[in-house]
Amino acid sequence: MLELDAKTGSNPGATLVAATDQARRALGADEVPIVSGSFKFGRERRSSPRGGKSPAGSGEQRRGAISELNDVYLPEDPAAALQIAGAHFTIEHTDGQFWLTDRGSSCGTVVAGKRLGGRRKGGKTELHDGDEIIVGTRSSPYIFKFRIDTATS
Q: Which of 35, 43, 84, 119 has its Cα between 20 and 30 A from that of 72?
């Protein structure tokens, strides 16, 4: 769970809202709360069942003792050009702020109209209420809106 903001005494939370049908299918809902210190997104393995959604917290179909890489898995059509990395981006809550970190993806992440990362260089930016997040290139079907809720506890 998110910790109380020491400055305001409020419990800041965030919600990731699906802006496209593909984003909605990946989340398994219209929106999901960001309820942990670190929320990871990445491509669903090609060997995973087709058409299956991987809502937050469900994890990827894995064999053996391999640890989970992501909280949300984004399926990508095998016939399409890859835009989504296996470990694409993370949303984190630290010191009362929300941050998106591109985890070294090839195509990067577009946040509020600005490219972050790409060519495996990664990068980090602060998230603000209403920011649009596009996973991969601007033509990606995975588009989300970031919403901050500062309701008091």
A: 119
